[in-house]
Amino acid sequence: MSDKYDVIVIGAGPGGYVAAIKAAQLGLKTACVESWSSKDGKSQVLGGTCLNVGCIPSKALLEITHKFEEASHDYEMQGIIAKDVKIDVAKMMERKSGIVKQLTGGIAGLFKSNGVTPIHGHGKLLANRQVEVTDKDGKTKTYEAENVIIATGSKPIEIPPAPMTEGYIVDSEGALEFDEVPKRLGIIGAGVIGLELGSVWARLGSEVTVLEAQDTFLPAVDQQVAKDALKQFRKQGLNIIMGGRVTGAEVKRKLVNVSYEDSKGKQELKVDKLIVAVGRRPYTDNLLAADSGVSMDERGFIFVDDQCKTEAPGVWAVGDVVRGPMLAHKASEEGVMVAERIAGQKPQVNYDCIPNVIYTSPEVAWVGKTEEQLKNEGEAYKVGTFPFAANGRAMAANSTAGMVKIIADEKTDRILGFHVVGPQASEIIAQGVIAMEFGSSAEDLALTCFAHPTLSESVHEAALAVNGGAIHIANRRKKK
């Protein structure tokens, strides 16, 4: 078999494996290079961070612990008596690993059925679209391609004040492997990863303290929604300290001593485990030869245009390694766009309609502009909100925290932002994405018939509320 391909993809995460499958479906001879190995080092592992140590295992733990939390605290008031509910951490981890194995194995099957050639090793881009692959034994082989797609993803950021210490100070990957519930858990960073991991272990009985250096909670989220979420998280027992800047962390007598500064001055915190969740950085280690023609910025992101083209002809880059939100679904959409463009089609990712989700309880999800962004831009807008506390299905499910919030253009009524905090926000947000993708107005949603009783009726009511016509809550009085 020739070592020349129409497309070589470097990286088999959600950006890379999807791009490879789509390229092969479009009739292009495709290979996908991935260095991740199984624990014994013998076989290749596909799926990248998301499937192996990110989205999927964390959601498995969130689902299991949410059920445990409900059974422990919420069943009795609903007439279900479930005494002495216990958690088997080893069994929970086994379940998580089983789901991961099933999905990663599924990608190998998809590669086979679509004719994608998997290449096991570390890929490095050389000049003229050549890819050098180094295998686990250090042997190298060079492949040629008409097009190269870089999809190497990202890895957790490490910080000098809290160096990784096995068994004590871990990153998000290590936090998915605890073999017992830590009595006291510290987390640096109140972002998506920190909040999700904090929720998992708090539900199982950990005393969780989250230290966030910024003064604003979830600054990228609409602040009305963020404040509502913060109130709920604190009510659940998460001790979230804003403006808490970590200055040091060291292990002494099997405890992690964390030093930090907040508005009250120097503080100390003792925990059994410390998770560093301060964000992720592009994974570009030993990726580009000096003459590859591909440029990066000072933070390691690869420069691309709106179609994910780099400055080198025939070289593309997608996902966490380029600008924009570090989201698996964004990476996949970019992967599909690039594969289709290579095949001569003209698709474009609509970056204004990429949803974001935090899988806590309540869930937080949003798409489009926040009120703060629109105020800063000087745009005239109107807002409609509806609380789940007034929704019959939410009451029946004993899950009434949160709201749906829709922001529309003052003049045109076009939906500019769609924000949810509450039950199944991760599913409800799709309605906002679809509406915005089709250029809907708030009136379009208000004129749509929603099934009763459903959580989605809150979307209907929020859309009605944009123009003062909500049925099941009192509307704001219009200014005369």
Automatic annotation (TrEMBL):
Needed co-factor(s): FAD
Give the matching Gene3D superfamilies.
3.30.390.30, FAD/NAD(P)-binding domain
Q: Keyword Nucleus: yes or no?
A: no
Location(s) in or outside the cell:
Cytoplasm
List, alphabetically, the PANTHER family matched: DIHYDROLIPOYL DEHYDROGENASE, DISULFIDE OXIDOREDUCTASE
Species in which this protein is naturally found: Marinobacter aromaticivorans
- Per the record, the domain of life is Bacteria
Q: What's one GO MF term for it?
A: dihydrolipoyl dehydrogenase (NADH) activity
Stretches assigned to the Pyridine nucleotide-disulphide oxidoreductase dimerisation domain: 354-463
EC number per UniProt? 1.8.1.4
Subunit comment for this entry? Answer: Homodimer.
Mind telling me which InterPro entries this protein's record contains? Class-I_Pyr_Nuc-Dis_Oxidored, FAD/NAD-bd_sf, FAD/NAD-binding_dom, FAD/NAD-linked_Rdtase_dimer_sf, Lipoamide_DH, Pyr_nuc-diS_OxRdtase, Pyr_nucl-diS_OxRdtase_dimer, Pyr_OxRdtase_I_AS
The answer to whether the entry has keyword Oxidoreductase is yes
User: Family assignment?
Assistant: Belongs to the class-I pyridine nucleotide-disulfide oxidoreductase family.
| This protein's UniProt keywords | Cytoplasm, Disulfide bond, FAD, Flavoprotein, NAD, Oxidoreductase, Redox-active center
**By what name is this protein known?**
Dihydrolipoyl dehydrogenase
What is this enzyme's catalytic activity, as reactions?
Answer: N(6)-[(R)-dihydrolipoyl]-L-lysyl-[protein] + NAD(+) = N(6)-[(R)-lipoyl]-L-lysyl-[protein] + NADH + H(+)
Record lineage:
Bacteria, Pseudomonadati, Pseudomonadota, Gammaproteobacteria, Pseudomonadales
